[in-house]
Specification:
CATH superfamily of the largest domain: 5'-nuclease
Helix content: 25-40%
CATH topology of the largest domain: Rossmann fold
Structural class: alpha/beta
Distance between the termini: 48 Å
Shape: globular
């Protein structure tokens, strides 16, 4: 639980002071010239400042009297955030775009208007404009995560440093935010939603989609500093920061990324510790680790590079996606059963492609003409983003091999369904691959999910029953199926599930 802050004039502040005292509060001596009054109420201290701010410290005992006082103050104060105007509130925000270390994290959050005040209490006075430790953000995140059973949900996406170095980010962000929104619209009707997006110079593609949503009855807000006015945007910002800080924490804790006893610090170019780490690492002659954004001015100055980096348009090739998929996607419907690729060489519409590791490179090929489909991996990663491997993939260790080499599956959410975990936990190769995937998940290279319980998987499943469970999971999660089993490939394609055959 966190404290709360309000902006109040003197008359309303006096009403609150009287309320607190009449309900058992004890006036205390002020501690500075900036305090007007201070009242101890249950296990919270309410302090009114000359600036017009009233601050209440957290109630660790969660005394209902404190919550009642907060509600009373809410009724008198000007709302901190613009109140709900739709049944569901969707916020989109990102963090890490300007940091020299680590991923850029994009988050979409959705919650019903009925829990608006509860969400406000959980977020409290979180300061999203300052750098804080992982523990700070994690505490708030856990409070928010407890509201999942009340309808709060969120989706996160990481853009890796090498994509930041190479590409203009706006197109990537446009596609990812559209995918997040499409995922939410599987659960709620478009016309019942308010959508708030922090303006990062939204591109034409996403603008067209947002215009479409407005025509369907949604309220769309694209604004600078949206988290200052819209609670849903602030929640998205808080979750983004927690996800990013978890990766930074693990980098700081890894002795392989320390030099002369110094770790990377906050990852912000304005952090003296981060700059000192960059200088010492470069002086050591070692290659930059994966998490350093080499295109940033701070790094280029250290390297003695005077030229400005040239950013490319990201190779997210809309023309590789089938017309059916794009029509659905642009109407706010994300569906793995509509996903197909169009081979640019032979023109075939493909429900499945072939994946191969050749020397140190991973490639995706057309199974009809056997030609490489350039940029198919990054296109699928940003348009879809979820991958469900079956046991044949885990046993061969194919995802970790890719991540150690050319990184086609970098940034994907890899979902390990219970039946696959049950089968592979019994084998040495399966356990080794799970350990490697856990490592890549911990350092933020992939997002790893393990839904469900292995104990719920019946013993003695036939191959047909097992395949059906896995394919149903792919349909439910809108994930690409990864398999090295010909029978599984045929069954998945017969169910219209897009498949990468390895």
């Amino acid at each position: 639980m966190r404290g709360k802050t309000w902006e109040l004039d003197e008359n309303k502040a006096e009403q609150i002071r009287i309320y607190l005292l009449e309900n058992g509060g004890k006036e205390q001596e002020v501690k500075s010239q900036y305090e007007v009054w201070r009242i101890r109420f249950s296990d919270s201290t309410f302090t009114y400042y000359t600036s017009g701010k009233l601050y209440s410290t957290p109630s660790n005992s969660r005394d209902p009297a404190v919550f009642n006082a907060w509600r009373y103050i809410d009724s008198l104060a000007e709302p901190k955030y613009i109140l709900p105007t739709k049944d569901f509130l969707i916020g989109l925000d990102e963090t890490g775009k300007g940091e020299v270390i680590g991923h850029t994290v994009l988050t979409g959050v959705i919650f019903p208007k009925e829990i608006f005040n509860v969400v406000d209490d959980k977020v409290g006075s979180a300061d999203t404009k300052r750098s804080h430790s992982f523990q700070y953000w994690d505490e708030i995140f856990r409070e928010l995560d407890s509201l999942r059973s009340f309808g709060l949900d969120f989706i996160t996406e990481k853009i890796p440093p090498w994509d930041v170095d190479r590409y203009n980010l706006n197109k990537i962000m446009d596609v990812v935010y559209q995918r997040i929104l499409s995922s939410f619209f599987r659960k709620v009707e478009i016309d019942r939603c308010r959508i708030v997006l922090d303006d990062y110079h939204v591109g034409d593609t996403l603008n067209r989609f947002l215009n479409f949503l407005e025509q369907q009855g949604a309220e769309v807000v694209v604004a600078n500093n949206s988290e200052e006015f819209y609670l849903e945007a602030r929640v998205a910002s808080v979750i983004s920061k927690r996800i990013r800080e978890e990766v930074i924490k693990r980098i700081n804790e890894n002795p392989n990324f320390q030099i002369d006893g110094i770790s990377v610090g906050s990852g912000n170019a304005g952090d003296p510790k981060t700059v000192e780490w960059l200088k010492r690492w470069h002086a050591s002659g070692r290659e930059w680790p994966w998490f350093v954004k080499r295109s940033f001015k701070t790094v280029r100055v250290i390297e003695g590079i005077a030229t400005e980096p040239k950013k490319e348009i990201p190779p997210i090739k809309e023309e590789l996606m089938s017309e059916e998929f794009m029509n659905e996607f642009n109407r706010g419907r994300l569906s793995i059963t509509s996903l197909s690729l169009v081979c640019p060489h032979c023109g075939e519409i493909l429900k499945g492609v072939t994946f191969a590791i050749i020397y140190s490179n991973s490639t995706i090929k057309c199974p009809q003409c056997n030609e490489f489909i350039r940029d198919a991996g990054v296109t699928l990663r940003y348009y879809c983003g979820y991958a469900i491997p079956d046991s044949s993939i885990i046993q061969r260790g194919l995802i970790s091999k890719d991540l150690e080499r050319s990184r086609v599956f970098e940034g994907f959410t890899i979902v390990l369904v219970p039946v696959v975990r049950k089968e592979c936990d019994k084998t040495k190769r399966g356990k080794e691959e799970f350990d490697k995937l856990a490592h890549f998940g911990q350092i933020g290279r992939i997002r790893l999910e393990s839904p469900g319980n292995v104990r719920d998987v019946p013993d003695g499943l036939s191959n047909t029953e097992r395949d059906e469970i896995i394919v149903n999971s792919a349909i439910e999660l809108n994930g690409i199926l990864l398999t090295a089993d010909k029978g599984m490939r045929a069954y998945a394609i017969s169910r219209s599930v897009f498949t990468i055959f390895i």
